[in-house]
Amino acid sequence: MARVDALLQLHKVLIARRADLRAKLLGDLDSLHFSDGRDSADEAFDAGNEEVNCQLAELESDELSQIERALEKLKKGSYGTCESCSKKIPVGRLQALPYSTFCISCKKEMEEGHGWDTQSSNSNAGWAKISDRALGLVDSMESVNLADYES
């Protein structure tokens, strides 16, 4: 019963975070402003700030999408189950990252490059196949003299 209670608490956390992100994103959109006759230095400064704000808004939007997905999984009864191995994701991981869709083992394997190639079952599949050494380019690359190409 403790897992059920923890999942219910995580549901509340997800709902609260979703509300915060929605309000923040609406505020970000409202704060965008356009040129109002100010000098070019002010406009350049504002453009830099707006670029940072847009990047932050994109990250927040991505998080909001993940939260929406987690809430949908809660409705379907599949929340807290690893999408790779179908085992239960430990509550501690869900408390740290409530929209986790993979258990630690599967996520770690994916991050190490073993899970990105879904068409190959070879555990050595990944970037090593296309590295310079695997393609035989290392020796030829080491003999390049950049001075030969400078004008």
How would you sum up this structure, described in words?
It is a single chain. By secondary structure, this protein is an all-alpha fold. It contains five helices and no strands. It folds into two domains: 2-104, Up-down Bundle (Four Helix Bundle (Hemerythrin (Met), subunit A)); 113-151, no CATH class.
What's the SSE blueprint?
Elements lengths: L1 H30 L8 H37 L14 H6 L7 H8 L26 H5 L9
Helix pairs in contact: 1-2
Q: Tell the overall outline.
A: elongated
CATH topology name of the largest domain? Four Helix Bundle (Hemerythrin (Met), subunit A)
Low-confidence stretches: 117-146
The H/E string reads: HHHHH
Name of the CATH homologous superfamily of the largest domain: DksA, coiled-coil domain
Helix count, per DSSP? Answer: 5
Number of domains: 2
Query: What composes the largest sheet?
Result: none
Determine the strand fraction and express it as a percent band.
under 5%
Instruction: Please tell me the overall pLDDT.
Output: 75
Oligomer kind? single chain
Radius of gyration: 24 Å
Span between N and C termini? 73 Å
Residues in helix, %:
55-70%
In the CATH hierarchy, what is the architecture of the largest domain at level 2?
Up-down Bundle
Backbone structural class: mainly alpha
Which CATH C-level class of the largest domain is it?
Answer: Mainly Alpha
